Each structure stands twice: as C-alpha cells, then as structure tokens.
User: Which sequence fits this backbone?
C-alpha cells in the first residue's frame, strides 16, 4: 500500500530506530578495536531480531501516546512502566528501575521520580515518538519531552532529560520538507535551555568540531574515545554528542549512519537506535536500504504498518487543533 510522505517518514523513523538498535546490540559494551577483532574490518553490517530495551521502552511510549490520545505527559509515561512491568522489567536499566520502584512504593509521584537517579540514555534512546507527534515543530517537541522525560531524570542527572529533548527536536525537524542533516543537527540544540542545558550544548559543539577536523569516521572514533568518554557508557553526555557527530560525518546517509553507529562500540545499540530514528524520519522508509526494510517487515511481531496510520492520524488531529487556535485568535483582530 502506497504511503503519503508523512506516513513514509513516520514508518521510516520507527523502522530506522529498530534497525539501529538491533544492529548495535552485538557490539554494545565493546571497544571499537574489539569490534574489528570480532567482526572484521567492516564490522557489523546486518542485524537480527527486534532490538533491545531501547525499542521496548519506545513501544511503551507509543502505548502511552495512544492511551492519552496524542497528549502524553509524565504521568502517562510512568503508567506505561506499570503496564509493561511483567513484559519488560528484565530489560530496564538501573535509572528506570529506580524511578519505577519509587512510584510503586509510594515514595514519589511520577513528576519527581527522576530526582537523584543515575545518568543514562533511557529516555533519549526511546523518545523519537515525541518528535513524530510534533512533526515539523521541534520547539514543541522539546517542550513536551521536558515533561515526559522528567520521570526518569531530573536534578543532577537532568541533562539526560535535556538529551531526550535534543533527540525529540531532531526527529521533529527531520519531518520538514526541506530538512537536511545540518538543519536537523541545529534543531537538536536550538531549543535546549541556554543555561541549564549549557554543558550538554557545549559538549555537542565540541564533538561536532572534532568530527569536522577528524577527516574520517575512524579518526573521529579514535579521538572521541580519547576525549569524550564518560565513566559510564550509557551516559547521555557521551551518547548524544556521538550520535549527532556521526550523522554529520555520514552526511545523513541512512546506511552509512546506522552502520557507523552500530560499530562505534560502547553504548552502540542506543547510538544506533537514535541515529536510525533520525535518518528514518529524514529520508522516510522509502530511503532506507530495501533489504533492511524487508527483513523487519518479514517479522510478524513488528506491527509498524498498523502503528504508522494511527500516529499519522494523531499528528493531523493536533494540527487541526492548532489551526482552530489560529482562527480563534484571528477572530479577535
């Protein structure tokens, strides 16, 4: 069945995220030298399965979006962890389990469960549906994500919430008709808080400078390992600058971007899924390698053909509401 451009981009974002997650899964926690030794000079170039916790939590967010009729908030996102506890708990990282434990024990309300949790990329890696909902409106994507992402991170780890805002804005920007990888990367930081998210913004800028001067993916990867590693590999301060820099180096090419992300090592599945979501939204499913798309579509457990029109309907419904507000204000003139 033929898709319009909006649906193609939604479908591409969902597919790309899963593919990047699955391709990066075998290289997670490995040093890039270990990847070369284990998989050869070309590294991992294909995938199996349907991803890891990145994709699982994204599915939870999608469920929260549908149950809230396209207006998800921190309470809805928190409820998704209760609803999917039996199915996904074994996949959740420490910061997620901490947040869920707090609300289960009545220690915190959802809006405050993220305070004091350790750093991770647990929201940034799964946040692309917030960008889809706010297609072509990266500012609003960042605003709404600030609320949703506070369930897992706030306070000292609040920059991980900012990282989720960056990725949601990047995906939203990728839906624009004239979007380029440069406009997408710009949108990732344009709508972050200028002071409160300053450290993340500066780290992203420094990583992009390294990418510009490195001359090659391999040189960039070596330099990034030397200068940008954090104590914990899942730290958003490490993964998000890497994602945006790899996208820049690969010029937004879907295949090259995802393969480079998957072979970056460290938190490779998370890097891969964020890259895949962005390039999928930018180029659409029609712009992804056909063999990769066919492999996902052959899996009966993947329902993105059904998810896509539901999301497209919510996007159009929100646009209709926005138009009604415009008309209401114009009536006051």
Assistant:
């Amino acid at each position: 069945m033929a898709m319009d451009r909006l649906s193609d981009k939604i479908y591409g974002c969902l597919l790309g995220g899963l593919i990047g997650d699955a391709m990066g899964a075998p290289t997670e926690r490995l040093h890039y030298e270990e990847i070369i030794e284990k998989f050869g000079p070309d590294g991992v170039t294909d995938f199996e399965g349907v991803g890891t916790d990145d994709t699982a939590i994204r599915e939870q967010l999608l469920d929260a979006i549908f149950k809230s009729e396209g207006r998800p908030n921190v309470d809805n996102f928190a409820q998704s962890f209760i609803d999917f506890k039996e199915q996904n708990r074994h996949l959740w990282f420490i910061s997620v389990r901490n947040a869920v434990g707090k609300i289960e024990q009545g220690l915190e309300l959802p809006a405050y469960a993220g305070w004091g949790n350790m750093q991770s990329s647990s929201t940034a890696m799964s946040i692309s549906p917030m960008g889809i909902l706010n297609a072509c409106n990266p500012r609003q994507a960042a605003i709404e994500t600030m609320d949703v992402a506070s369930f897992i991170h706030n306070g000292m780890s609040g920059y991980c919430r900012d990282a989720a805002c960056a990725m949601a804005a990047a995906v939203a920007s990728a839906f624009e008709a004239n979007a380029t990888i440069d406009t997408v990367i710009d949108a990732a930081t344009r709508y972050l808080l200028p002071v409160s998210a300053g450290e993340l913004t500066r780290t992203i800028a420094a990583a992009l400078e390294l990418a510009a001067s490195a001359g090659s993916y391999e040189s960039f990867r070596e330099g990034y390992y030397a200068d940008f590693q954090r104590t914990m590999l899942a730290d958003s301060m490490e993964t998000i600058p890497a994602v945006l820099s790899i996208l820049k180096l690969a010029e937004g090419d879907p295949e090259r971007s995802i393969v480079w992300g998957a072979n970056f090592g460290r938190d490779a599945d998370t890097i891969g899924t964020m890259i895949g979501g962005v390039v999928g939204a930018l180029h659409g499913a029609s712009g992804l390698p056909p063999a990769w798309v066919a492999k996902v579509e052959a899996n009966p457990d993947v329902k993105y053909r059904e998810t896509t029109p539901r999301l497209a309907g919510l996007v159009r419904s929100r646009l209709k509401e926005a138009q009604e507000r415009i008309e209401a204000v114009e009536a006051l003139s």
Summary: The mean pLDDT is 97.
